[in-house]
Design brief:
The protein is of the alpha+beta class. The protein has twelve helices and five strands. It has a five-stranded antiparallel sheet. GO terms for molecular function: DNA-binding transcription factor activity; sequence-specific DNA binding.
Length: 248
């Protein structure tokens, strides 16, 4: 399994000249929302699925607006805050479980990805993202929200131990139940999901910061550089220093 996040996209020139039409690829994918946004979080490209879910008929009605302007509260404000974290150089959003609007305009659960778009000089010029509807049944809405809280807790506390018992308690589930829900969503056990999240954050820091590897190890929840290096090599196939050396 590939645990590394993709490097920030660099199609700034393509977007500036109108050649990047990823929206056309996703126009007929009914369970997936696709979008590009500028540095202010305004839509610059969207697929037809997103247009319909926001209650519009034409893409032009959505272009230039922010998520806060087209989604009901609190969804819209949450998406806009998430956008700004990515646009300000924060970590990419990778398979985050969250509420979205389904085709019937009712809230439903999805997995969301967002990555920064950079120009040739490495400056952030926007973001690209997609949200895919969850096909597996999630049980009650309260249960799905609880699993979402546990996943968000992992993302916000990667420098901490994160025992599975603590995550299960946060979700109001047994460890077995939490493991089953996460396995259904991501295809890995809860323990593997935590490792994946740590390694993905490490990849992001190795690519985009000059922090010493020992500091990256601590910020990703590893007690020392040696244990971090062992897990990183096992997951990625390279040592952290070798992975960093691949950075353009």
């Amino acid at each position: 399994m590939d645990f590394s996040l993709p490097a920030p996209l660099s199609p700034g020139l393509l977007i500036d000249h109108g050649f990047f039409r990823g929206d056309l690829l996703f126009d007929h994918v009914a369970d997936t929302v696709f979008f590009l946004k500028d540095t202010q979080g305004r839509y610059t490209a969207v697929n037809q699925t997103l247009v319909q879910r926001c209650g519009f008929e034409h893409k032009s009605e959505l272009i230039g607006k922010t998520a806060e302007q087209v989604f009901p509260l609190p969804l819209g404000s949450g998406y806009s805050q998430q956008d700004q974290r990515v646009l300000q150089g924060g970590p990419a959003i990778n398979a985050q479980l969250e509420l979205h609007l389904y085709g019937n305009r009712k809230p439903g659960w999805c997995l969301t990805w967002k990555v920064a778009i950079t120009d040739a000089q490495g400056r952030i010029v926007g973001l690209a993202g997609l949200s895919r509807d969850i096909q597996q049944p999630m049980g009650s809405t309260n249960e799905a929200a609880a699993v979402s809280r546990a996943i968000e807790h992992v993302a916000r506390h990667l420098d901490s131990p994160l025992p599975l018992e603590e995550l299960a308690a946060l979700a109001g589930l047994s460890v077995f139940q939490l493991d089953q829900r996460i396995r259904g969503l991501f295809g890995v056990t809860a323990g593997q999901y935590v490792i994946q999240a740590r390694i993905e954050r490490a990849c992001d820091l190795l690519r985009h910061s000059r922090d010493p590897i020992s500091e990256i190890a601590l910020s990703c929840g590893y007690a020392d550089q040696a244990s971090f290096t062992r897990q990183f090599r096992k997951s990625v196939g390279l040592t952290p220093s070798a992975y960093r050396g691949m950075r353009p």
